[in-house]
Design a protein that fits this description.
The complex is a heterodimer of chains A (118) and B (169).
Chain A lengths: L5 H24 L28 H54 L7
Chain B lengths: L1 H21 L3 H21 L3 H26 L3 H5 L4 H28 L16 H9 L3 H22 L4
Helix pairs in contact in B: 1-2, 2-3
The chains are: A mainly alpha (118), B mainly alpha (169).
């Protein structure tokens, strides 16, 4: 393994250890008082109405998938941003045509009203 | 050391992938998939591809998994619907398709390994291999055409998702 990855591994190990320790300690030391109110959705606050298994409106899905698609565009921007000085004008043209095609997509999404909530 | 980490990551990947296909509740499957993506990111790190590993975690483990969970909640299957078993024919088809996919990966890898006389150590890699730097230079010179085609693929996905979820307008 490349030595520079050791900090990441140590960090991941620390996080897992910390999370486990917090769960374990609160499990061992936490008081347990059993009451009816403990079984409510909110122990204090508004009484919930209906079931938690509500159908989500499809709008959430649309927002999520559009986010993922433009997220991937950003992923491609990162390696370009790191190397664009060495790539020069060809790299600039490449990236701009890439963004232009996705710009058509953004225009379409906008015109279709997919960015509106209703 | 590499072997040890690879073995651990592979075991995590294998077990979590097994959990994805065996859990009856699709939410548990999706959560197991997060663990699988984590193991896969470790394997990408071992392959000296830290950028791909990071993207694996951010894009797949973060964004795409959220999308999967959305779809599961959109379908909103109830307990009794989840219990229904699919027919044997469906399972047989799935098994054949999965087996064919596995062969597609295993056969070229084995062929490459025998051509190289077994599982020797990897050839020494050039300095900075797999860095964002090298990746960017390769992507925008050698692989410029696939990169541009990706934008068309993304455009098709954008239009498709809007068509599917927005009936009116």
């Amino acid at each position: 393994m490349v030595p520079s990855f050791w900090p990441i591994l140590a960090y991941a190990g620390f996080l897992v250890g910390l999370g486990g320790a917090i769960l374990l300690i609160s499990h061992l030391l936490g008081p347990r008082r059993h009451q009816r109110a403990k079984h409510d959705t909110y122990e204090c606050g508004v009484a919930p109405v209906g079931t938690a298994r509500e159908r989500f409106p499809v709008r959430f899905y649309l927002v999520a998938i559009l986010f993922v698609l433009f997220d991937i565009e950003t992923v491609f921007l990162v390696p370009w941003a790191v190397t664009y000085r060495r790539l020069g004008v060809p790299g600039l043209i490449e990236m701009f045509s890439f963004i232009a095609v996705l710009g058509i997509g953004l225009y379409y999404v906008w015109r279709r009203g997919a960015l509106e909530w209703d | 050391m590499d072997d040890l980490i690879f073995t651990a990551a592979s075991i995590v990947c294998f077990l979590s992938a097994l959990a994805v296909v065996t859990r009856k509740n699709p939410i548990y499957s999706a959560v197991s998939l997060i663990l699988f993506f984590g193991g896969l990111a470790v394997i990408f790190l071992l392959l000296r591809a830290p950028f791909v590993a990071g993207m694996q975690l951010i894009v797949y483990g973060g964004a795409i998994l959220v999308l999967f969970l959305f779809v599961i909640m959109l379908l909103n299957l109830r307990e009794e619907e989840l219990g229904k078993e699919k027919g044997g024919r469906f399972k047989a088809f799935a098994a054949v398709a999965a087996g064919a996919l596995a062969l597609l990966v295993i056969v070229p890898v084995m062929a490459a390994e025998t051509a190289r006389d077994g599982f020797g150590p990897l050839a020494s890699l050039p300095d900075g291999f797999g860095s964002v730097d090298h990746l960017g230079l390769a992507l925008f010179t050698q692989f410029a055409l696939p990169f541009e085609v990706t934008s068309v693929l993304l455009l098709a996905a954008i239009v498709g998702s809007v068509m599917l979820s927005k009936k009116h307008v």
